[in-house]
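Forum: Protein Structure Q&A
Topic: Joint prediction for protein chains with partners

I've read a bunch of threads here and the consensus seems to be that you should model interacting components together rather than docking separate models afterwards. I'd like to see that in practice. Below is the full input, 802 residues plus whatever partners are listed. Could one of the regulars post the assembled result?
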Amino acid sequence: MVSICFYFQIHQPPRLRKYSVFEIGHHNNYFDDQKNEAIIRKVTKKCYLPANKIILDLINKTGGKFKASYSMSGIVLEQLEKFAPEVIDSFKRLAETGCVEFLDETYYHTLSFLYSKEEFKEQVEMHNKKVRQLFNFRPKVFRNTELVYNNELANFVEGLGYKGILAEGADHILGWRSPNFVYHPKGSANIKLLLKNYSLSDDIAFRFGEKSWKEFPLTAPKFADWISKINGNGNVINLFMDYETFGEHQWEDKGIFEFLKHLPEEILKHKDNDFVTPSEAIKKYDPVGELDFHNFVSWADVERDLSAWLGNRMQQEAIKETYLLEPHVKLSKNPALIDEWRKLQTSDHFYYMCTKWFNDGDVHKYFNPYDSPYEAFITYMNILNDFRIKANKLGEIKINQ
Amino acid sequence: MKVLMFGWEFPPMSSGGLGTACYGLTKGLSRKGIEVTLVLPYSSESDADFLKIIAANDIPKLRIRKVRSAIKPYMTSEGYSQSISRLPSQLSKIYGSTLLDEVYRYTLAAETIAEEEDFDVIHCHDWMTFEAGIRAKKKKSKPLVLHVHATELDRTGGHQVNQHVYDLERKGMHKADKVIAVSNFTKNKIMTHYSVPEEKIKVVHNAVDFSHYDDERFEINNTDRVVLFLGRLTLQKGPDYFLYAAKKVLEKEKDVKFIIAGSGDMERFIIEKAAEMGIASKVLFAGFLNPEDVERAYKMADIYVMPSVSEPFGLTALEAMKNRTAAIVSKQSGVSEVVKHCLKVDFWDVNELSNKIIAVLKYQALQDTLKENAYLEAGKFTWDIPAQKCVEVYDEVINKI
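Posted by a regular:
Agreed with the consensus. Here's the joint model:
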């Protein structure tokens, strides 16, 4: 028996507008509403709506045998409500099938767990509430921003009542072990750990349209064949990826939608295969062993660590300064100020400041509004300095400049 | 392979990027076993310096032949007339009465040298040598390569273009077997304004001579942050934009000094303007610097600004970067095409230039990241790369004939 667990990340950050040093103290709008709206509309058209339609059709066509799961940041849900409510509606229809599971994460797609457990907890609760409100669904499985994960996180999240958690199936942690089993996180009681099979996931997410790849073109029968070969050698294959893989990162004319349409029937041709959601996977399978993630692991880049967000001094400085404001922002009890501060925590802002792949011309391309990591830092810091002044006025305590 | 090269200036008696580029390129060619005979103009004033060149010449495959002439690179017709009028009458009789007469005189002398020399290809740097190149080609039936470091349009910023100079440039480009442009920026100019077909142009970006880095501290660094302008004080280099930006920066930041190094026809205007704007005490004029002092100026500076209106390449940016100085360069430059770890602005955007200067002064993490990455990046631009590309051009034109 081998189960396939699809999980899609959906997130779009609140991109900042170019904010000059001369605007510090003027408290102008920080967010590029126009660009954010344009991107949401574009991705809605190219990915969210067509992909949702395919998923719904697949569920209906297979009589509910096909399953999928989603983790949508609160910040993308907000933007969808505002700019593309039809996407929210289509997710509601998916929720009604009972074949779709929603996962929890931090509402603002942040790295708050690293800086403030209290803030982290509040954002997770906010997210849980949002998903309940919109989709009448109470998530029981957690996945942190960009699969950032360690033992401590699993333990903490279990304390919040979650039954399962997702992480990257990183080679340096797994060693000889396979990602295709359920594991037990070291230091936790009962929470179960699902690991991304990055090789098979990336075949779809990154290599699908790559002509130089020796497996090009990737067809549904071929991929189903790879899956079936794992039969007897694993319980659950976790295919985790950005939802934008469908139609945005991989274009429709490259056949990505056709691939998605035909994959389930090909996989289900083998009687021993089935589809599960993360909750079903952890119910169905017992952990085969304990995994020790002492350091943080993420799904980003080859390093699979935090260096995409915290690799250089600009990033470290910017994020540190942001979280230093927490006590003062919260003292203000001003919801607009708190919301703004949280939007500044969104991990993408720090991701755009990454210099490590900038050398090879491979800027984090997707939806990146900046020409260079330096521009990203300047805009961010100018805004943060303006925000600090605002927080000073509204908060009761003076914040050190 | 033997190259007959016509140049303008050569360190240590050079005043601009052309001399530095010539030095780096011949050194790179020499390492590849290419023999270069470089024809250089010299005036009686610079005779002593000339001997210094020959004595200090550390390039084994390079032979220098001199032509007595009063012309210097970057000279305008007006500037030539002025400098001739300052010479004692017995000397001034030797030279042509106008710049163009003098270029013609140089051409005849160069032609004689070409006759005496044995070579496979001719390589000319900028307009004053083009006619000499054309004649050498005709005399010896050898292929001609023109290397364009700047066009008349760059030097004049498009205003008051000297028709004779433009005509000489155009004629040269059309007679040449191949034209080397120092950037795509220049290539586009050559295609658009000189109607040279694209396939005839090869882009060869400049490089920087990388020596060991020695840190040096200066008295001024104990009290002030230093922002540097280094270049000829002419319309092309945009010193006025530097001054306007300085004014705006000083409204926000204390303890900053702006150093302007270089001389040129805008010198008086810039000095008077600084006084008029009330920032004379914050703007220091260093005059024209010798090569050692240029290096020291970069080390003294926290930020190097190159606000050129039209900059075919912009070697100074690479030189600043190799000295661990954060660079802000105009987007209207060749160097901005190839360098990533610097900040880029449109030359006319004084607000944005000041925004960026302030950001680098204000955010230490940005400054440190820029400096470190600039140093690492500049190190990759060795002269072996352009030398190799020139050899490819030589091979191509030699085989064609």
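The longest helix of chain B spans residues 99-116.
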